[in-house]
Amino acid sequence: MRPEVKVQKRIRRHQRIRKKIFGTRERPRLCVFRSKKQIYAQIIDDTVGHTLVACSSLTPEIRDRIREARERGEKMSKIDIAFLVGEVLAQRARAKGITKVCFDRGGYKYHGRVKALAEGARKGGLEF
């Protein structure tokens, strides 16, 4: 399958999901985007269209943890990094008083990095 067709199919799946999921002030939407190398997550209040909390694998806090693990000789896979992003996102959300979210997987399968991010967020204290 050509890459542009895969992207178009994901976008259509995401549009179907977004018809049903809407983030409110009490229960904002946790939106996930993954590229080949990075993963991004943000918590959005759709009533005003504002991002409340964001985190990605490029965030300095995450990059430092990855660097420290590599210095210790440990190799972090992309799934491990996604789990870490979920944990850090949950910590930041709880600091802002957010405990419940609705999960928007962005048209991706609930598998691999997307699943790891969700589990990390749950471990960090978010309820889906």
TrEMBL record:
The keyword Ribonucleoprotein applies. GO terms for biological process: translation. GO terms for molecular function: 5S rRNA binding; structural constituent of ribosome. Gene3D superfamilies: 3.30.420.100. The keyword Membrane does not apply. One of its GO terms (cellular component) is cytosolic large ribosomal subunit. InterPro entries: Ribosomal_L18 (IPR057268), Ribosomal_uL18_bac-type (IPR004389), Ribosomal_uL18_bac/plant/anim (IPR005484). Pfam families: Ribosomal_L18p. Keywords: Ribonucleoprotein, Ribosomal protein, RNA-binding, rRNA-binding. This is one of the proteins that bind and probably mediate the attachment of the 5S RNA into the large ribosomal subunit, where it forms part of the central protuberance. Belongs to the universal ribosomal protein uL18 family. NCBIfam families: L18_bact. Part of the 50S ribosomal subunit; part of the 5S rRNA/L5/L18/L25 subcomplex. Contacts the 5S and 23S rRNAs. This is Large ribosomal subunit protein uL18.
